[in-house]
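Notebook entry, structure prediction.
Reason for the run: the old model in the group folder had no record of what sequence produced it. Starting over properly, with the input documented here first.
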Amino acid sequence: MPASSADRSNLAYGNWPQQGTQWVEYTWPSARQVNRIATYWFDDDQGIDLPASCQVQYWNGSGYVPVPGQSTCPVAGNSYNLTTFGTVSTTRLRLAVTARSGFSTGLLEWLAYQP
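New structure, fully documented this time:
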């Protein structure tokens, strides 16, 4: 459990100096059912800041599409942010993250849950 969004006691993912929309992805060897995620955003108080927005997408066999019924994808610092959606069965789950102007984005934790 991170102590805060600036916690560096464990590994952190950051895409500095990239800006705009970037993504991270889970890939599984066989289909998994997933219906929610939790994100703990990284903010180093330098070039990596909390994102402006995010969207959960899944591989439907031919391309990435938004998960159905997605709740707001929260971008609050210093806590886990839960996003719920209709259950999907997929081999790939993607989190598209859009940076605030002039910043990059990062993650301390990204968890995917099965129903």
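Summary: The chain has a mean pLDDT of 97.
The old model has been moved to the deprecated folder.
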